[in-house]
Amino acid sequence: MDITATLEWLQSTSLAVYIRDSLYAFPLIESTHVIGLTLVFGTIAIVDLRLLGIASSERSFQRLASDTMKWTWAAFALTAVTGVLMFITNASGYFHNGYFRTKLVLLVLAAINVLVFELTAGRSVKQWGEASSAPPLGRALAAVSLVLWLAIIVSGRMIGFTTTRAVLSEPLPAETTLEDLLGLPSDGSQAQPAPESK
Amino acid sequence: MKQFALWLSTTAPSVYIQEHNAWTIPAIQSIHIVGIALVMGSVLMIDLRILGWAWVDQTLRQTTNRFGPWLTGSLCLLLVTGILMVIGEPVRELVTLSFWLKMALVAVGALVATIFQRALRRHDERWGDTLPHSHSVKILAIATFLVWVCVIVLGRLIAYDHVWGAWSPSERQ
User: Contact B18/A194, CB-based, under 8 Å?
Assistant: First the structure.
């Protein structure tokens, strides 16, 4: 089964059709996605700022992490499930969207970042867990984590401006730009009414 | 309100945001999301401390000292970016039911946070230690968390105000 067929099958499933046709399903799923992602970023920021020595630096890292990370994972699960539900409503549209692809790559990088942390600074946590900040590598990974998650939020928001809930009968041509989609002149010099933002 | 929104959309700052909407609107919205994320993280941690599910090695006062300033700072960031969004897209924001319901809930959430922080500061340390044992405070903690959850939902529904049907002012025109 090739990818085009898989994407088309996904968006033709009864679940996808139900979400697409319902007046309430997509807005509520998207709202739940935002609730999940705010909790993901909010809790990750607490951990990263602790690693950087910016906040909670007097508190043991292990205690802070065990208080915080379980909520990160729970919220991430909620965000992932609602993300998949939104994806299937217009699978080929999202699949061909540059911001969607960027976001997926950034998510993979964020996962690699966590893995690298666990294999390096995470191993020696007993030595620095009570110190006011992590060793240099741990601090660098925390900074990378914050940047990645901020970029994930921005690219996620951009997906909403560059896709529609309607299923495209065929993928957009590769040369389609944001200006085309927003109905702006490509040089961006001329004033236009605000686009129908999502 | 529609008249006011239309007037606002002709003012210079509004025109600037509209003319550069390809980046201004997504940028402001993204910062707004980061702001509400910091609020959610802070409120979650304070509420978990009240419920005794996290930060139990610290007093409630220590926990609110840690997260209170972040909560206040994030709310200021949300206010600024929120005002910019209203200036940039006045009709989209002001002529919706979701926006006004959200503003009412934001007022409730901010008021509860302020009263709670003031009460903690006015009373001595022991009061902060016995407080989490009170049932009504635990219920208040869960209620405030749900208020912020609803604020997020209503914020997102501004873009989908049609879900309110005839209740939505944008549907009536």
Answer: yes
